[in-house]
């Protein structure tokens, strides 16, 4: 897996998982013309499998590039951000903690580690089997023949069994699940940010919501979200603006004003740093992808 070691939105501290009633997990095959999701976490294991194009996932101190045929498992509670730089098609699986708790007596320290680059042929065989199961579940869901859920659930439980038997590891000593007090503060700050991101809110405003002094709030937010509050604010603004960029014909200046960017030069720098293109080029490319799919 190529790695560069570097440094749907819900108004809550965590992203809400839309599980299907018949599966009790989320299993989607999605086409993305280009998007960006800022730092968030789930109360679920998440698996991203790239079928076409690329995906980039940031996990605290590393950024992982996923190419076709590669997948990534993200443990429950782990803060991450993701972006689709130039269009992709992916399998997205989210397996809620509640679902896992129905099969395991204690999931509080459940932690999986997959060495995708392992030289061990046995490990690579197990990873390949995980890929095969994901693809088989996709095919079963696409055909949706009567009774397909029997085979789908068979594959799902084989997938989880393989993970549990071969990739279960001790939770890292430097990772601690967030306490209810921390979650409550983060919830309040993120909700405030999401509600007011289009206004000229300040770090002092956000610190006040958390009932913390600005200096301590900066450390608190970075330790728990893996980024600064200001970067998170700008990332959230970019993510909302990017969606409107693709689905509306509003001018760039109108989009900046709608989404809280008061400094045009700063906005263009942030956009280029995040998406490696200009807003107009991003819109043009997305429209070309849409047109090619409808032909």
TrEMBL record:
PROSITE patterns attached to this UniProt entry: HTH_ARAC_FAMILY_2
Domain (HTH araC/xylS-type): residue spans on this chain: 187-285
SUPFAM superfamilies named among the record's database cross-references: Homeodomain-like (SSF46689), RmlC-like cupins (SSF51182)
Signal peptide coordinates: none
Organism domain of life: Bacteria
InterPro entries: Cupin_2, Homeodomain-like_sf, HTH_AraC, RmlC-like_jellyroll, RmlC_Cupin_sf
One of the Pfam families matching this protein, by short name: HTH_18
Keyword tags: DNA-binding, Transcription, Transcription regulation
GO molecular function: DNA-binding transcription factor activity; sequence-specific DNA binding
Protein name: AraC family transcriptional regulator
Organism listed in the record: Candidatus Fusicatenibacter intestinigallinarum
Lineage: Bacteria, Bacillati, Bacillota, Clostridia, Lachnospirales
